[in-house]
Each structure stands twice: as C-alpha cells, then as structure tokens.
Automatic annotation (TrEMBL):
Stated name of the protein: Ribosomal RNA small subunit methyltransferase H
Gene3D superfamilies, sorted: Putative methyltransferase TM0872, insert domain, Vaccinia Virus protein VP39
Family as reported in the entry's similarity comment: Belongs to the methyltransferase superfamily. RsmH family.
Residues binding S-adenosyl-L-methionine, per UniProt: G46, G47, H48, D65, F92, D108, Q115
Described purpose of this protein according to its UniProt entry: Specifically methylates the N4 position of cytidine in position 1402 (C1402) of 16S rRNA.
HAMAP family from the UniProt entry: 16SrRNA_methyltr_H (MF_01007)
Lineage: Bacteria, Bacillati, Cyanobacteriota, Cyanophyceae, Nostocales
UniProt keyword Transferase, yes or no: yes
Catalytic activity: cytidine(1402) in 16S rRNA + S-adenosyl-L-methionine = N(4)-methylcytidine(1402) in 16S rRNA + S-adenosyl-L-homocysteine + H(+)
GO cellular component term, pick one: cytoplasm
Annotated keywords: Cytoplasm, Methyltransferase, rRNA processing, S-adenosyl-L-methionine, Transferase
NCBIfam families assigned to the protein according to its UniProt record, in alphabetical order: 16S rRNA (cytosine(1402)-N(4))-methyltransferase RsmH (TIGR00006)
Key word Amino-acid biosynthesis present: no
Length: 298
C-alpha cells in the first residue's frame, strides 16, 4: 500500500482552534523576506497572513477568500497593516493569477474554525442549523439540495468517494427513506441510526465522513484545488515558493501530484511536513495538517 492510500481521513469536528497551523514551517517554507509580495489564497481568520506581514515592514500581501464573512473578519484582523494588504473575494480557482508576480503563495485548505463555529453556516452537526455548507454564500447549491434531491446511488457514490465512507450505501438508503431533511442534527441522527452500534460509538461521530463528503461536493473543493494547482505556479517569480496545507488524504494526493507534475516547480518536501507534538497539544486541528512546498525553477 502506498503512503497515499494508507493515509487516513481524520477530521476534528469537536475541537477547533483559531491558531494558524504549522506557523513557523509556513513562514520558513515560503522563505518570507523583506520587500516580497505574497498571496494568501485562503486568508480565513488572517492568522498566516499576519505572520507573513510581520516578517518585515515592507512585505506586501494579497489576501483572497471566497467567504465574505471571513474576508470581513480578516480585514479587521489585518487593519493595522493598512495598504500593505489588498483583499479580494473570490474562489481561488477563479482568481486571474497574474504572471510572475508573487514571491510566495499559500493555500491553507478546508473550512476555518470561524465557519465551523458559526452554527447557521450548517457545517457542523454539533449545532442544529439548516443544511447549508456553502463557503461562498452566493453559490446556489446547498447541502439541503444534495441531500433532499440527489438519487440514492449518487449519494452513496459521494459518501464513498469524498468521505471514504465504507457504509456509504446503507447511509444513502436511510437518508432517502427519511428525507426531506431540514437540519444538520436531523441528518446526523439519521446517519447514526443507519450504522452498526460499534461504528456509532467509535472514535469519530458516524456522520463525520458523510458531512465531509457533502461539504466537498457543495463547494466543489477538489476541482477548485486542481484548478489552483494548475494555475498558481505561473504567478510565482522564479525562485518563488508555493505552500499548500491539506487536511485529508484526498486533498493531499492532489497536492502531491499537482506540485510534482508542474513543469515550473521543484518540490522541496519529499514527505509532507506535519505538526510537532508540542503544536498538536495546543492546536489539535494541526494533527491532520500536511504541508507541501515547491519552488518555481523557470
Ligand atoms: C483553514 S481556513 C484558513 C485559515 C487561515 N490560514 C488563518 O490562519 O486564519 C480556510 C479558508 O479558506 C477559504 N477557502 C476554502 N476554499 C477556498 C477556495 N476554493 N477559494 C477561496 N477561499 C477558500 C475558506 O472560506 C476559509 O476561510
């Protein structure tokens, strides 16, 4: 079994932290230096962006997020840096990457603690909320649309493919029997009722994988990542670095191959960089983070 297929899917729905993951590793990996212009394609709460901006007084940053609330929060968080930061609301896949512009590009994938902790966004089954899960509030497809309208076979397929859920068929069957669903908690309970007791009381909640699959589908996350990996390298200056942090094996596989297959890049991380025990102890979200870095060679 290669390292890709053996890497497990670990999602921490319970414990969130507002701290940026792998902070020193990202700053060192991007080789952030005075006078540089950096692109943070997932500014979120602004944690990594702040670290980049603090490295030197003349560092410039372009900050992207597709979530208007995240962008508003990041604007506040980074207000002290004034016009050194430019904010853009966009999916990173849709961003018109300018040629040879940035000294470093960062993507810290997935949802932010802010999104998970805001019940009405519908990302978490720990709060009762409508089934939404859109990172971009203007997007039309919601988790409710998928759950209530898609065919049973399609649901089973996405749970299997994007959640790596072994019990995808019986979960899909139970959902179709009991739908329509309005809320996250109703859905999570139906999923829990579809699985054997052993599974129900396991290390993670039985709905975790199905919720991850739904989130990936609603936000078209893997397609966006592939587009990003194809377009971003050309926006680096020669010698510029790209750093990508992923949180599950489906993403990490795309990152690994995307960086390796780019004719513009040389991969600097043979194996992904992971968090030290000391970081995991104070930031549990870092436990599943994998950082890969590459440098533009031509
Ligand atoms: C894990 S958080 C980033 C946290 C940030 N690095 C920090 O230190 O605060 C991921 C953020 O990326 C955004 N995001 C995820 N996929 C995106 C995409 N395809 N385009 C733009 N933003 C995206 C999410 O809305 C979320 O705010």
């Amino acid at each position: 079994m290669n390292s890709d297929s053996s890497s497990s899917l670990i999602i921490d729905e319970q414990i969130f932290s507002h701290l940026p993951v792998l902070p020193q590793e990202v700053i060192a990996g991007l080789a952030v230096s005075a006078g540089g212009h950096y692109l943070d394609t997932t500014v979120g709460g602004g944690g990594h962006s702040r670290l980049i901006l603090q490295t030197a007084p003349d560092v410039q940053l372009t900050a992207i997020d597709q979530d208007e609330d995240a962008l508003a929060a990041a604007k506040k968080e980074l207000a002290e840096f004034g016009d050194r930061v430019k904010f853009i609301q966009s999916n990173f896949a849709a961003y018109p990457f300018p040629d040879a512009t940035f000294n470093g590009i960062l993507a810290d994938l997935g949802v932010s603690s802010y999104q998970l902790d805001t019940p009405e966004r519908g990302f978490s089954f720990r709060h009762t909320a409508s089934l939404d899960m859109r990172m971009n509030q203007q997007a039309s497809l919601t988790a409710a649309d998928v759950i209530n309208e898609w065919e049973e076979a399609e649901l089973a397929d996405i749970f299997f493919k994007y959640g790596e859920e072994r019990l995808s068929r019986r979960i899909a069957r139970r959902i179709v029997e009991r739908r329509p669903f309005d809320t996250t908690t109703e859905l999570a309970e139906a999923i829990a009722s579809a699985v054997p007791p052993k599974y129900r009381y396991g290390r993670i909640h039985p709905a975790t994988r199905a919720f991850q699959a739904l989130r990936i589908v609603v936000n078209d996350e893997l397609k966006s990542l592939e587009t990003f990996l194809a377009k971003a390298p050309n926006a680096l200056v020669p010698g510029g670095r790209i750093a990508v942090i992923s949180f599950h094996s489906l993403e990490d596989r795309l990152v690994k191959h995307g960086l390796r297959n780019s004719p513009l890049l040389r991969v600097l991380t043979k194996k992904p960089i992971t968090a030290q025990e000391s970081e995991i102890a104070h930031n549990p979200r870092s436990r599943s983070a994998k950082l890969r870095i590459a440098e533009r060679v031509n």
